[in-house]
Automatic annotation (TrEMBL), chain A:
InterPro entries: ABC_transp_permease, BCAA_transport_permease
Topology versus the membrane: Multi-pass membrane protein
UniProt KW Amino-acid biosynthesis keyword: no
A GO biological-process term: amino acid transport
A Gene Ontology molecular function term of the record: transmembrane transporter activity
CDD domains, A to Z: TM_PBP1_LivH_like
Family: Belongs to the binding-protein-dependent transport system permease family. LivHM subfamily.
Protein name listed in UniProt: Branched-chain amino acid ABC transporter permease
Transmembrane regions listed in the UniProt entry: 12-31, 37-55, 62-83, 95-114, 141-167, 187-213, 225-244, 264-283
GO cellular component: plasma membrane
Pfam family, one: BPD_transp_2
Domain of life per record: Bacteria
Species of origin: Guptibacillus hwajinpoensis
Compartments it resides in: Cell membrane
Amino acid sequence: MELLIQQIFNGLTIGSVYTLVALGLTLVFGILHVPNFAHGAFYMVGAYITLMMMVGFGFHYWIAIIASVAVVALLGVVTQQLIFKKLEGADGMRMMVAAIGILLFLEAFGQFMWGTEYHRMDTPYGSVVNLFGLTVTLQRLLIIVAAVILMLALHFFLTKTMIGAAIVAMAQNREGAFLVGINANQVAWLTFAIAGGLAAAAASLASPINLVFPTMGNLVIMKAFVIIIIGGMGSIPGAILGGYLLGLTESIGATYISSDYKDVIAFLLLVVILTAKPTGLFTKGVQ
Amino acid sequence: MLNVLSKRVLIGIIAVAAVLFPLVFPNMYVLQLLTLVFIWSIAVYGFNIISGYVGYLSLAHAGFFAIGAYGLGLLTTKAGMSYWLSLLLAVLITSIAGALVGVIALRTKSHFFAIYTMCVGVIVYLLIDKWDSLTGGVRGLIGIPAPSNIGPITFDTLTSQYYLALFFLILTVFLCYRIVHSLLGRTFIAIRNSEELAKTIGISIMKNQLLAFTLSALFAGLSGALYASFIRFIGPQISAITVTFEMLMYLLVGGIGTLAGPLVGTLIVISLTQSLQFLEEYRMLIFGPVVVLLVLYYPRGITGSINGYVQRKKQQRVKIANEEHEVKRKVGEAG
């Protein structure tokens, strides 16, 4: 029983990270209408920048995270303005290939700048605490709490502010948004900035319990794809639900089925879902 | 008519040049490189059928390549079958795998298809990586035999392997040529341009897509099997998504949806990579932006752009001829 609770806790930790990545991906999907394959590279760059700020410049963990969020948000804006903006109206294949090109570049850039070896990220929250009879590291607790705070912040931003509402409007109905005079370009770069920032925050939070290496984003981004398909492309509650669901499934599956094949679970889940319902779960309207 | 003839003549000249090449330049390094180019090209031709002509971005291609490679490797080393039977079976297994995946994957559209096939590719990778007892896991599979003799023909030298790869490449190009220049090829392109329109003229979308997908898996499997017996060692890394991306890059540089594109792209990118050896690890620093620039400004790649140029010239010539004709007619009327 205690093992199960421990695994549920671990599942929530991993799920929080997945959710943050999937949220950015799903927001960008609303703008691009294709999955942004480069999102995993943003995640990786975010982790390295936090690490560099801490090791290279000796900044505190939190300051390093804020710097990393800012840099990756900027990176998102740059890719949007330089590349995706020019591909507006192009077919989906071209956008996907452009995103793959960005991914290839950023991954090579990561290797070039920081090498291929695995790095460990220190955290001021490495201590172990006892929570309702459960021994957990503070960092894992921090991940869960920080993710919830970020999600709430995103929620209030999207529902209570004008700009947030504009982002939602763009995702719901592009033409309608244009008709009411929404500045498409502004919404697009802002969305990329938010998505990049979320990816950097997720990576910086998760790195102390994982490792930092150039291809660290690959598996995470692919799982984020699975999540946004489970949750419905472009749906924010869906991404949150899917993220936690996948985290829990993986962590419980790893304990009770096989830890070797825990990564397969996500992809098998997706294959099963798309086999049963080719347009994904919770898809609105006709594709 | 003249155009078709000259195209055939051009293909003939290139084929003869490729056949004579080892006799003129018996350089081991170059031969090794070209053999690899030929083998990879076969896979890229497969990629081109589904992604170039039918317009579905299939990200499971490295997975099929690996199924072909591991199929041959396992059948020869573990089951002890003869090379040629294993090659045939490996290609057959990959095609069946392709058909099975296709039946389900093709029900999904555009980005769902891309993500679905990507997941299939990852599952293949993870299975190869984790199924230690069968595939050897991360240690890989070693001791894969070279092609065995057919009568008096042996395949123990590099030159003979070069000819073997060339033979299969020519076969692949020939098949693709026949497909593209037949009703089937037109059907594929019709589906790419508009599925709804294709449907209204009575094209069975699913049947044709499935055929294209299976063919693409077949060529990937053939390429993988040849690769396994040429390199003699395979690891799970050959099924990684990055290999699919690499093939996508070859296709994009050469020209997606063109007949010469796969070979041109593979040849150029692999030779460039080899000549920039010092960049090996970081070659994507250059090729990543190249992919983006191509998508932005030359979405049809090298071959596509040349074709477009030739087409425009021809149209211009026709236009000028028409104008001259018009002028003559007017002059005639006036006179």
